[in-house]
Design brief:
The complex is a heterodimer. By secondary structure, chain A is mainly alpha-helical. Chain A has one domain (about 25-245). Helix content of chain A is about 85%, strand content about 0%. In chain A, helix 2 packs parallel to helix 6, helix 3 (about 45-65) packs parallel to helix 6 and helix 4 (about 75-115) crosses helix 7 (about 170-180). The longest helix of chain A is centred in the middle third of the chain and has 41 residues, at about 75-115. Chain A is elongated. Chain B is of the alpha/beta class. Chain B has a single domain, classed as Rossmann fold (3-Layer(aba) Sandwich), CATH 3.40.50.300. In chain B, the strands form 2 sheets. In chain B, strands 6-7-8-3-9-10 form a 6-stranded mixed sheet, with helices on both faces. A 4-stranded antiparallel sheet of chain B has the order 2-1-4-5, with helices on one face. In chain B, helix 6 links the parallel strand 7 and strand 8. In chain B, helix 3 (about 95-105) packs parallel to helix 5 (about 140-150), helix 4 packs across helix 5 and helix 6 runs parallel beside helix 7. The radius of gyration of chain B is 19 Å and the shape is globular. In chain B, about 40% of the residues are buried.
Chain lengths: ~240, ~250
Amino acid sequence: MNIFNQTGQYFALLLKVFSKPERHSLYIRQTFNEIENLGIKSVGIVAVISIFMGGIMTLQVAYNMVNPLLPRTIIGLGNRDSLILEFSSTIMGLIMAGKIGSNITSEIGSMKVTEQIDSLEIMGVNSASYLILPKIIAVVLMFPLLYILSVFFGIIGGLIVGPAVGAVTITDYINGIQSSFNPYYVTFSLMKCLVFGFLISSISAFFGYTVEGGAFDVGTASTRAVVNTNIQILVWDLILTQLLL
Amino acid sequence: MIEIKNIYKSFENKDVLKNISKVFNQGETNLIIGRSGSGKTVLLKSIVGLHEIDKGQILYDNRDFTSMGQKLRKQLRQEMGMVFQGGALFDSLTVEENVRFPLDMFSELTSLEKQKQVDFCLDRVNITDANKLYPSEISGGMQKRVAIARSIVLNPKYLFCDEPNSGLDPETSMVIDELIHSITVDLQITTIINTHDMNSVMEIGDNILFISDGEMCWEGNRKEILYSENQKLQEFVFANKQYQRIRDDKINR
């Protein structure tokens, strides 16, 4: 019963979030702030994780290639397709649910327990829309860009690590990442990123907005937000892969 | 003027407010007093619409708030200002941006006019050199004063204060009380303050409602409060022996 109640509350909140803003200019300014806070400030962590992810993936593919008849270019190709199809979208989505999601939940949750949201309501501001809509727009816009950066850094990671440990030559790796490229994989993953961006921002905001109590409850809400977002990302990954690939 | 009629409010079958009626006058500091947990905050939040009441009527200058739709309520809320217990300033904005926020959201003033209004309000609450500081960088008393400045920046007709003195030292509490009282009189607004601070009651209590266990127990003003025969009120007021002595002195004279 609780899950139905919560789902109902989530959609009721979304209805409030997507109602007409009071002052467009303030919402636009807020959206740019969120793009910087949630998007631009995530570039560093995306780059670091992606470089390691690409490097490790390259090593894994290389060590599992026991058949000498297979061309070494497969290492680059395998790394590229894994990054494009799954790692830079889904795995990055799971990581961003932790980074961006917990940030959103704790920020909105703290505002709730310190009566800042009540304060907005008293002023006649639609607090749900003012606080959540810019975050959703920012994350949905930025997540595909972070995905592209992740693929880029992942490939660079493979290019650094593979030749450095002697798993693949630079030429083989570069030939690999250029061969049998299917552009639809990118389109498919970009579509996933839009969905994941929406899930991360809206679910996290929901848990923050509905928190009751104090600092301990904000912490609990953050954890619940990350867990629920991760589950939803995996469920929607499965659904979208089945529908679009 | 705000009038509440026969208000009832319950949470999960627990009655928190029971049949409360009262008229809060314009240009006066109206106080809701009572022990912690007596239902003061619930009453205040019900009056401003943060809690939906189960039964009763709330009238803002004869406009029925309870039967209003969301759109009309939002319009009416632009005539309200509220100072929350913890100040409720926006952490991510500076003092000046906090005060300016309602103007940015709702007024059609030019940037220069907004700045003048912000400066006027900050000056009114005696905040001079903290414009660019963040709420975490100023004291609790200053936060309350900034919250008051923000609540009056749109020239509200109604001002609500939830425990404005909580966590403040006696001297700062007195400054805040005097500030709220002078703003109320100068701007002729209807002010409702929630408090359990007897000093505030004796300083600025023009019109007082005492509630106990969610029920209306007594109403009057600061001159009458010491001489009331109401048992529950006496227990509340004379918990501080100082007021017992003040009453005894006055009676003996």
